[in-house]
Write a structure and sequence with these properties.
This protein is an alpha/beta fold. The chain contains eight helices and seven strands, in the order βαααααβαβββαβαβ. A hairpin with a 5-residue loop joins β4 and β5. The two termini are 19 Å apart. About 13% of the residues have low confidence. InterPro entries: HAD-like_sf, HAD_hydro_PyrdxlP_Pase-like, HAD_sf, Pase_PHOSPHO-typ. Keywords: Hydrolase, Magnesium, Metal-binding.
């Protein structure tokens, strides 16, 4: 085994768009979604807009079809498969949701390459309506990070993954978030494989191969807290 854990973001990293915006725009709900964002957090607004789409008679299969058309670079697909073939353990930390992520990964035959998906729960209820809930239930307590959105602190999740991985003897962790070291999937592939090769050849005590993170609308700069606290369980990926 390579002893390397690679943690991917999903939106604008694995796929070349924001999955929430991709669906909202495709269903002509952009203006309505922007109005909702004036009075509620992103995660709450996306759940509400999915309810409104359902009330218009749109089927969950239509959302699935829309997701399968989300752009993904063939170079990203190659990078995922190459990293897995080298023995890396691949995980996802994303502010999207399980339904969106799993639908896209399954469509491209990539679900089997990931051991864990950390994201907002998303499922279809008995009425066929897509429900999306926060990873962290901010209505009952705060995750304590003032930089991240109320439904998810990626820093806490990364810290938990790091502690778990290192306790299992893995020496390196590579985190791909939205960064500016590459401009497209081809450059991402080169950067990722270079980092993995450097980690494989280096016999040092460093246990993180850092990438410079950039703040964006949904995912702010990721802090690494000293105490991760209680966290929801990650979604295991069946094989």
């Amino acid at each position: 085994m390579a002893g390397i854990v690679v943690v991917f973001d999903f939106d604008k990293t694995i796929i070349d768009c924001d999955s929430d915006n991709w669906v909202v725009d495709d269903f002509g709900a952009t203006e309505r979604f922007d109005i909702l964002l004036e009075t509620m957090p992103w995660n709450t607004a996306i759940d509400k807009i999915m309810g409104e789409i359902h009330s218009q008679g749109r089927a969950i299969e239509e959302i699935g079809d829309c997701l399968t058309k989300a752009p993904i670079s063939p170079h990203v697909i190659k990078a995922i498969k190459a990293a897995h073939a080298l023995g890396c353990e691949l995980r996802i930390v994303s502010d999207a949701n399980t339904f969106f992520i799993e639908t896209i990964l399954k469509h491209h035959g990539l679900i089997e390459y990931f051991t864990e998906i950390n994201t907002n729960p998303g499922f279809v209820d008995d009425e066929g309506r897509l429900r999306i809930f926060p990873y962290h239930d901010f209505t009952t307590s705060s995750h304590g990070c003032g930089l991240c959105p109320p439904n998810m602190c990626k820093g806490i999740i990364i810290e938990r993954i790091r502690a778990s991985a290192f306790s299992e003897g893995k020496k390196h962790l590579v985190y791909l978030a939205k960064v500016h070291e590459w401009s497209d999937g081809e450059e991402l592939e080169k950067v990722l494989l270079q980092l993995i090769n450097e980690s494989l050849s280096a016999d040092r005590c460093d246990n993180i191969v850092p990438l410079r993170l950039a703040a964006d609308f949904k995912c702010h700069t990721v802090p690494l807290p000293s105490s991760p606290g209680a966290l929801p369980k990650a979604l295991p990926v069946p094989h």
